[in-house]
Structure formats: C-alpha cells, structure tokens
Hints:
homodimer, 11-stranded mixed β-sheet, 12 helices, 11 strands, 42% helix, globular, disordered C terminus
Amino acid sequence: MIRLAVDVQSGDFGPDAVVRGVVEAYASSSEPFVACLCGDEAQISGVLDGLGGGFDRSNFIIEHCPDIINDDDRRTTVWKNKKRSSIVRCVSLQKEGAADASVSAGDTGILIGSALFILGRAEGVSRPVLAAFIPTPAGPVLIADVGANINCRAEHLAGFADLGCTYVSRLFGKRDVKAALLNIGTEPSKGPEVVRKAAAMLEGDARYAGFIEGSRVFAGDADVVVCDGFIGNVMLKTCESFYALTSEYLSDSPGTFEKLTRKIDALNPENYGAVPFLGINGTVLKAHGGSSVKSIKSAVLTAVKAVVNSAVGAGGDLSGP
Amino acid sequence: MIRLAVDVQSGDFGPDAVVRGVVEAYASSSEPFVACLCGDEAQISGVLDGLGGGFDRSNFIIEHCPDIINDDDRRTTVWKNKKRSSIVRCVSLQKEGAADASVSAGDTGILIGSALFILGRAEGVSRPVLAAFIPTPAGPVLIADVGANINCRAEHLAGFADLGCTYVSRLFGKRDVKAALLNIGTEPSKGPEVVRKAAAMLEGDARYAGFIEGSRVFAGDADVVVCDGFIGNVMLKTCESFYALTSEYLSDSPGTFEKLTRKIDALNPENYGAVPFLGINGTVLKAHGGSSVKSIKSAVLTAVKAVVNSAVGAGGDLSGP
C-alpha cells in the first residue's frame, strides 16, 4: 500500500482545506493509499470528525507536529532546528521509510532545503530541480527549473534536461521524450554563454531538441523546457497571471470560460496541483501556497501517480520506460 | 510637419504590407506626416499605384535602397557595409536630419546596432533598452528590456528603470510613473545578486516601486517592469504564444474572442505595433517581424505619437511632463 506524508499545517487555507483535499483524493483515487497527516492533532481530528463518515478513517494517520516555523527561522537550518514542524516531519517520514512520498503547500525554500538535507541528492545529481507542467495542445510541457536554482551553470542546465526527461518519460510512460533549452533565438550563436555551453554539453544526446524560444513553449515543440530557475519562475507566474486576467475578462461568458479552462486548466494552480522536486532520493511534491481543496486533491493524486510509476527516482534508466 | 522613415523592405510580408500599412496610418492619423519609404523604388511605386487615389501622394517620398543584407553580413558591421540597405538608410535619414523617427520590421540586432552606431547613445546612457508594452486592466505596462541586452549588470537595470519611466511619462503625459524590478519574490533577500544590487541603486528614487513577481506583472502594479533582456524576451514571447493558444481555443466562439481581444489586444503583435529602442539619440521603433498591414499601421501611429510627445529623448527632465 502506498503511504503518503501530507503537510497539513501549510498553505493559505490551513488544515481544513488540506485535510478535505486529501480525503477527496482518497475517494477518487484508483490506487488505495494511507495518508499520514502531519500537523496539529486536535485540528486534524476536528476536521476529520466534521467530515462525518463515508471513508475508512484507519487510512488517515495523524502525526502530531508541535513545532511552529517563524519568520526568524533560517531556511537553511530549519530542517534541523524545527524537526517536529509539519513540513520537516513529512520529509523525515520518508527518510525513516514510513512514507513513499510527501506533499506540502509550505514555503518552497524550506521544503526543498529539507528534502535536500534530509533525503539527499540522487547519485550523479549536482543540482536537484523544481519542475512544473504547463498545458499545450500537444500535451503537458515540463518547465525545469521554476525557482529552486538561480544563477545556473551550463552543467546544471544539462542536468535539468536529464532529470526532466526521466520524470516525464516515467510519469506518462512516454518514449522519445525531448528536452529543449529556452533561449532568445534558435541559431547556435544566440543567447547567453551559459545556454550555448549547455547546448554543447547536450549535443549528441538523442533527447536534446535544440533551442526553443518563448513563442514556441505553448506550441509543445518539446516535452521539457530547460531554463534557469529565475526565468522559469517568472515565466510560470506571468502565465498564471495572464490566465487569471483572461478568466476575469471572460467571467461574463461562463460557458466559454469553462470550455477554455477545460483545455488550458493546467495553468490554473487549482488544477496542476503540485510540482515535483527532482534529483533527490525521494518523491517530494510542492503544492501551490494558495492551494484550495481541489489543488490539494490533485497534488495528492499526482503524488500517488509518481509513486506508482517510480517517476522520481535516483539515476537509473534514462532512456524511457 | 513630422517626417518618418519607414523600412519598406523588411518584415515577413514585404513591401506590399508595409506600404499599405503606412498609407492606412496616414489616413487615420490626426497628425499629418511625410513618410519616406526606404526600399526598392519599382516595388514601392507599384504598390502605391495599385492603391489608386484617395491620398496625397506627395506625402510619400521614395528613397531607393539597392543594398540587400544577406545572412553572411555581420550584424555588428552591416550598418557601415550596407549603407544603402533599407534598414540602415532609415536610421541614416534621422542622422542627416531628414527624418524625426524610423520604423522597421527588420532584424532586431541589425536595427539596434545601426541605431547605436549611427545615432549614438543619449548622454549618460550606458545601455539603451528595447522596451515593449503589455496590456493590463490598469493600462499598458512597459517591459524593459525585451531582448537588446543580455547578462545585464545592476547599473544597466537601474538605467532601464530611468529610461522606461521617462518614455511612459512622456508618451502618455502621465505623472507618478513607477518602475519595479522583476524578481522571484518581494522580500529584500530574494533573487540573484544583480537584481538586489539594482534595488540598492534605485532605493530612494521616488519612481522605484520595489520588486515585482511574474504573478503581478499583469496586475499592473508598476508602469515599468525592469529585467534582463533574456527574461523580458522569453516573458513577452511566452505571453504572445499563450495569447495565440487562447485565440485558437476560442476560435469557435467568435463573439467572445473579439471581446477578449479588445481588452487584451496589446499582446497581439498586430496591435501593439512597435517597440521603442530607448536611450539613443533618436526615435527608432522596431515593428514585429511578422507585421501585417494592421501592425505597420499601429507602428507608424506609435512613431507619430512618440515624436509629438518627444517621448524618446536624450536625458532631460525625468520627473514627468
């Protein structure tokens, strides 16, 4: 049975939204799982009691986490100073072998720091990558990195291509996965030196599809778009914000807007649920800080899928399933 | 009378689209102008003849430009080796005092190189900036830079803020223009060193509005969003591509799509027309390579507006009109 650790105390809507999201995911998952709910015992019990029956409560284990992370806590040391905080405890449960994956809507820096220090890097990985899917007519495209690494060197970008291709190929059981380097042109002479150097390192790799411009990201020319975390973060957030603007503009045409969202729904944080942190020894998914019940539900379902497909793994066969 | 130099030979649709665009702009402009059409004389005459009457042909002067730029021509030297090419001739007419502004849909590198070498930097400017407007519910937001400068230093970013604010304030006659630095968070400790250094340089400037995340760009929190040209280029092109995707998805709901485009039309290259190159001695506007008749028309109208408002100028009063 799959065991998931869920950080119930993080996220803008608190334990109520997170616990409900996990229970909804449980109800709709084709794969049964046990959820270890990390947070305040009394609050979690309260939410579970409020939900009444209709689900097997023995599959929801409460892990009481009394430590509270404050603004004063340093992100780089919180994983050892606040071991009984909900976010750190989630990741620790994986290290102890009590969980197969963890999901948190908490602070990105703290989550990836905890994952890095507690679980460690996978073999051969110099920089783990935070990756997020965006929707395209050709299917989801993975953007790597979206904020874990800034000021990347060429070898880091080349590594992101590798980690991204492995994840996409395993998660979807897809062969011939292609990665492209985000650039401001497609000619070899274009762009900053770091991107051109990464291209030279990836040359000869059958999965490498060359440079991709911003104008082709949504065209789905590549399965994985590789970039520095600063750029990926800005790109993802700008698109989310453009999506929100479009939603607002279409709000008086509800039928049309629903049709649109069904097609491009992955840009709605509610729907893409969670982004994986790739290249560490374990499956750690970061849910959006503003996660609603629906977002947590999809984050949990993504975690289940990732575990079932061993999508996040250390090294191994990178050429596909 | 305003005099515009227009590069008729560049752009994906050739002299036919460009000449038609200029004539349409002439017909709808409240400010009369003389257009100097730079390109192949026979082709331009042919297009003008084909348009029949209805406009004062004496306001359309043909400047024959026999030089053709090839892929072999180096971008950095083409301005002196191909002086009689349409793109270089446009900018030269400004230097000679025969034109107040120029518009070209040609290669960005060649255009900004020619502008830089022929017209020169404005006093006190170390890096001129290519800036583009995006639409927001609060009005247009200027992104600076969108591709002229990559690997920017902090002082370059601080300079972009200054150039951008001056342009917006003059073009729209707007006071209290604010510039923000694009970053992956709003806390002072967030982001790469270059961005934090630029923030320190802008601190104390009344026009500086702090960091802005990608998620707030379309919220219109700032009039000018400052970033490295690599990031600005990717952001702009990604949004264009997302816009195109939205258009495609809404194509079977024509009424709704038209309503949407009326609101967010600036992201459609057809409508935003041209982006200014700021910080040089002259008004040089880059139209989209894929410019249609409509795009050229709006590029020309933007050029007229920029000249009338002295929006692009050397130094001067930066505190508003």
